[in-house]
Amino acid sequence: MSNSESASDDEPAGADVRWSALTLDQLVEEYWETVAPVMRADDMDPESEHPPHRWVQSDFSGLIYTLREHHDRTVAEFLRDDVGITPHDGYEWDLDDDAVATALDRHVDALRERGLADSTVEGTRSRLAAYARRFERRGDVSLIESHDREMAVETLRRVVGYVSRDAKRHLVKDVRTLYAWLAEEGYHDEHVLAGVGLDDVVDE
After folding, report:
1. Predicted local confidence at residue 204, as pLDDT
2. Quick one: which of 49, 97, 124, 160 has the fewest CB in 10 Å?
């Protein structure tokens, strides 16, 4: 076993760990020994949060590979089912991916910190939940993993078809704001919905 202090400044924190040689129980131990200290250094709580996928990929890609190829698990499943961390509570997003739910909770908290009225936040959260659930049904990529504009627009177009006319514009704005936040927070490489408006997703 090793800890993050053994890694040089020029290599990922988990580079010297032989992840693929570890059993699930050993991976749990390594989480607390290696991953948790790096999370704390980045102002995350390893006992209650799931780190963003992009963050894990940066320093602990070997963990992602090992979980996927040797244990048939995603990082979110490992953290939830093996380490025992259920990161979010309160609003029920009705999603299978806890990491996405946690990111959405963080985004909603950021909206509240901007001083938006509770009624506005509640409406926004409901519309984002509809989008996130539809996106998750695709099953090929997580909402908080980088994906192209076509995928986002097509998902948005499908959701828009199920809401009232008055809600369509709000939905597009809310989802566009979410994508801007995902890019700012480092989940995505870019804001893929920048410039996308209602006319781009609604066939008049």
Report:
1. 54
2. 49
DSSP 1: -
What CA–CA distance (Å, rounded) separates 108 from 124?
8
The alpha carbon of residue 127 and the mean position of all alpha carbons in its chain are separated, in whole angstroms, by 17
Q: Using the 8-state DSSP alphabet, how is residue 21 labeled?
A: G
Q: Are 98 and 80 in contact (CB under 8 A)?
A: yes
Strand (E) or helix (H) holding 69: helix 53-71
CA dihedral 116→122→128→131, nearest 10 degrees, is -150
126-179, pLDDT tens digit by residue?
899 999 999 998 878 999 999 999 999 999 999 988 777 778 889 999 999 999
Q: Is-contact 183 140, C-beta < 8 A?
A: no
Structural domains of the chain ordered from first start: 4-83 (no CATH), 98-200 (1.10.150.130)
Residue type at 122 in one-letter notation: E
Measured between its terminal Cα atoms, the distance across the chain in Å is: 60
The pLDDT tens digits of the residues spanning 27-67 come to: 999 999 999 999 999 888 888 777 877 788 888 999 999 99
Whole-angstrom Cα Rg for the chain: 18
With a threshold of 0.70, does the pTM exceed it? Answer: no
